[in-house]
Amino acid sequence: MNILGISGSLRSSSTNTNLLRAIAKLAAADVNFTLYDGLDKLPYFSPELDFEGAEAPPAVAHLRAQLDAADAIIVSTPEYAFGAPGVLKNALDWIVSSANFTDKPTAVISASPMHSGGDKANASITQTLRVMQATIPENIRLMIGSVKIKINAAGEITDPALENELKNLLQTLRDLHIKA
Ligand SMILES: Cc1cc2nc3c(=O)[nH]c(=O)nc-3n(C[C@H](O)[C@H](O)[C@H](O)COP(=O)(O)O)c2cc1C
């Protein structure tokens, strides 16, 4: 099973990216987990660059190919100023016309040091992905508050309840993939 992880943070010590790395370690041996690393290489989206018959910019073609190769996707995002990071929304805007999220089992995680767990960014990204026909049942939307006490600087999960939630999320993605 191929899972693509997309972090909405460009920070080198991002908790969201570390969470995705931790999920990769929790996954079963038959899971091939790829962490997408091209968010900052995508051009700014403009419909003028994305018309029918146009050749996609290489970074966009790369993202679309990685999405196509994935059986399931996990997005993990911070929240900035009560919204989703612009870099992540920019990436999703490139996928509207190419529809690579259609029917893909997709988990949406938001992690924040605040109690709210980035719930507004999570709601916004979920709405955008659902418009693009991603399959997102409510039980694989995780809002992780107080994240800095649940994962340490080495990227290890220190909260057993969170570890359990992430294992359940992986199981749900697998079940959805088998059903598809
Ligand atoms: C400019 C800025 C705005 C932020 N706004 C929010 C916010 O609205 N809600 C929130 O939960 N956290 C907010 N934060 C805190 C981020 O959630 C926190 O920095 C988080 O660790 C970033 O995720 P990362 O560790 O994956 O990079 C903000 C941080 C910055 C720098």
Structure explained in plain terms:
The protein is 36% helix and 14% strand. The longest helix has 20 residues, at 160-179. Strand 4, helix 4 and strand 5 (141-144) form a beta-alpha-beta unit. It is globular, with a radius of gyration of 15 Å. Strands 2-1-3-4-5 form a five-stranded parallel sheet, with helices on both faces. It has 180 residues and is an alpha/beta fold. The mean pLDDT is 97. The chain starts with a strand and ends with a helix. The protein contains five helices and five strands. Flavin mononucleotide is lined by residues 9, 11, 14-16, 78-82, 112-114, 116, 118.
Structural features:
180 residues, alpha/beta, five-stranded parallel beta sheet, 5 helices, globular, binds flavin mononucleotide
Give the arrangement of secondary structure elements.
Blueprint: E1 2-7, H1 15-26, E2 32-35, H2 58-69, E3 72-77, H3 86-93, E4 106-111, H4 119-131, E5 141-144, H5 160-179
Parallel strand pairs: 1-2, 1-3, 3-4, 4-5
This protein binds flavin mononucleotide.
Summed up, what is this model?
36% of the residues lie in helices and 14% in strands. The protein is built from five helices and five strands. Helix 1 links the parallel strand 1 and strand 2 (32-35).
Low-confidence stretches: none
Determine Rg (CA atoms, Å): 15 Å
How are the strands of the largest sheet arranged? Answer: 2-1-3-4-5
Bound molecule types: flavin mononucleotide
User: What's the helical proportion of residues?
Assistant: 25-40%
Q: N-to-C SSE series?
A: EHEHEHEHEH
Largest sheet entry:
5 strands, parallel
**Number of helical segments?**
5
Q: What percentage of amino acids are in beta strands?
A: 5-15%
Oligomer type = single chain
